[in-house]
Amino acid sequence: MSRSHEIQRQIRNVQRLQRVMRSMQLVAMAKRRRCTDRMLAGRPYAAAIRHVARHVVAAHSEFRHPLLDHRDDQRAGYIVVTSDRGLCGGLNHRLLTRVNHAMDARTETTDEIPLGVFGKRGMAYFRRRAGRVLASANNLADAPAAEALTETIRTLIDEYAEGRIDRLFLAFNRFENVLHQKPMIVQLLPVLPIESDDMPHTWDYIYEPESIDLIDAVLRRYIHYQIYQAVLENRASEMTARATAMQKATDNAANRIKKLTQIRHKLRQAAITQEIQEIMAGCEATSG
Q1: Sequence-distant (≥ 6) Cβ neighbours of residue 136 within 8 angstroms
Q2: Which residues form a coiled coil (predicted)?
Q3: Of 156, 218, 228, 229, which is closest to residue 189 (Cα–Cα)?
Q4: Which residue, among 73, 72, 78, 71, has the nearest Cα to 103 in the 3D structure?
Q5: Phi, psi of 62 (to 5 degrees)
Q6: Contact criterion met (CB below 8 Å) for 168 and 224
């Protein structure tokens, strides 16, 4: 096979890849719009339930829920939200690196830290790292059902309620804008009280029917929805990062095609020049 034919074959292969990546970009852009709308619609409720939960923590109730116990910060657990698929740039890598550094900073060994993981990428990472994954959930849809998250959430809450961990953290990628997705680690348990500047006075509530039932319902709804919102945030970040990565890949493929085309033209011009030189040399030989 001649050199020009080999380059032409490479151009066709790159063009096929370019079409695939362009299609993936368009799909990711369409999904990004839906995921972003769903995520933004959930933020007001997430903020409201967080505010209510922190008021409950600050109230002087006759009952102290086990999820409100403040203990010495010795043992921690993590709920990590990642994507199921790759091809989204460094989105998962940045988050997992931050979680890795946070875990290394703990006093206990890494194998003793309990984990709840959402997404196949996180599972693959902690399997290589020998993390103690207690529960996981994969193949979450763009709008995951709450039931798909329940088992993992319940497992880590039970770890805290039974005193096996003193802190529970949530790690996910927060959607800032189409150019920036921020990896975050926030404390879920114990629930942090409202800052004194935001609430100058403290008060108690009048509970009906019983404070135990209402506080338990509020706190568990708070925890479940914060994790659910984190999954939505991470999904919107994933689609945004994938659309950006596929756009860059499509542009790189176009640049590669351009360079290969230039090389093919140079080879063709060199071949034509050589043929002309051979013809001229033959003419000179016959005329002489």
Answers
A1: 116, 117, 118, 122, 123, 152
A2: none
A3: 156
A4: 78
A5: -75, -10
A6: no
Strand order in the sheet with 132-137: 132-137, 114-118, 76-81, 167-177, 180-189
Q: CATH number of the domain that 238 lies in?
A: 3.40.1380.10
For residue 60, being part of any structural domain is answered with yes
Q: Is the pLDDT of residue 200 over 60?
A: no
- Does residue 278 fall inside a structural domain? no
With CA atoms as reference, report the closest residue to 182 among 236, 124, 106, 242.
Answer: 236
- Domain of residue 131 covers 44-244
Contacts of 127 (CB under 8 A, 6+ apart): 133
Residue 18 lies in a domain: no
- Contacts with 255 (C-beta within 8 Å, 6 or more apart), sequence order: none
Q: Quote the number of domains for the chain.
A: 1
Q: Which two tokens stand for residue 186?
A: 């926030």
Which range, 117-126, 208-217, 264-273, is most confident?
Answer: 117-126
- 237-253 tens-digit pLDDT: 999 999 999 999 999 99
d(CA 80, CA 263): 48
167 DSSP β-pair partners: 76
* Tokens (6 digits) for 61: 């109730």
The Cα 187–Cα 53 span in angstroms is 13
CB of 169 closer than 8 Å to CB of 102 = yes
User: For position 111, what pLDDT does the model report?
Assistant: 67
CA atoms within 13 A on the CB side of 59: 18
The answer, yes or no, to whether residue 196 has pLDDT greater than 60, is no
Whether residue 190 has a cis bond before it, omega within 30° of 0: yes
